[in-house]
Amino acid sequence: MKENKQKETTDDQIVSTTSEITIQIAEEFIAERKITIIDPLSDFGFKRLMATERNKDILIGFLNTFISNDAGIIVDVTFLPTSQIGVTPDEKRVRFDLYCKTAGNDHIIIEMQRGRQAYYANRIRAYTSRAITNSVKRGDSVYKTVPRVYSVNLMDYNMAEFQGRDRFFWTVYQKDNDNQIFSKGIVLYFIEFRKFAAQLEMLDMTDVQNRWLYMFTHVMTIKEREMPDQNSIFRRFYEECRITNLTDMEKQEYVKSVLEYEDVQEMMMCERDIARKEGREEGRADEKRQLARNMLEKGIDPALVAEITGLTVDEISLLTVNG
Predict the structure, then answer these.
(1) Residue 92 has pLDDT above 80, yes or no
(2) 310 backbone φψ class: left, alpha, beta (φ>0; ψ -120 to 50)
């Protein structure tokens, strides 16, 4: 009984705050959920794997797999500030998940998008435009040095723009009326993890692109004996996801990241439930109004119609007036 009470207290502590995660709370959370591998799709997991100097080799390996056909082989990247202010105070500040440039001054934006977002395509257009304008310096009279911008978007949901199509890795170019590439100055890439997972059994897992996506989506369930040798980039990926390789502070940050995401998901589910409920109620109200109209057309007394349908007398009167 005492153990259950202590567990309830711990759960209350975890749920009640995500801004003050102590190492004790973090360790209890990790132990309770039996976490041995962190989620690379979480905000913390993604940034640990892809946005740190120590794991730059993982980032470069990923980029060379997916964008080298356009960007060429990348040998090194420099991380850039992720928060970008506008030229004027009125311009919106943008914040990238990861922003870097290559040795050839090509700029790369990587976004991890777990929740569905309205107008996401417009957001990416704005982000790539900001990356270009911020790189053009005052006094530049020739636009020869304008960098190319590659936007890599990791999507943990299916985009409406690609609905009904099985492909899970998309490359979007600027093209002309003859479907010829006009410019590779801006190239957008979209990876839809859920479509990948849905087709997993039919895919060739010797393909390096598929192996990267498998690591992102299944590293938490992979057995260590299934991992390749120590020299593989995928082994490095796996090792960096081990919870035992995190410092106490990193464990706190990871738990905070997970809880914040779960809080957002719970709020979104509540909103969807409310919307569905309101939709059902509105549907029932429509049925009542249509029933009332049919009864009124048959000459049934409005008071009796109100009694049978549950509509008010005033609502019945409106139906009589509006037909």
Answers:
(1) no
(2) left
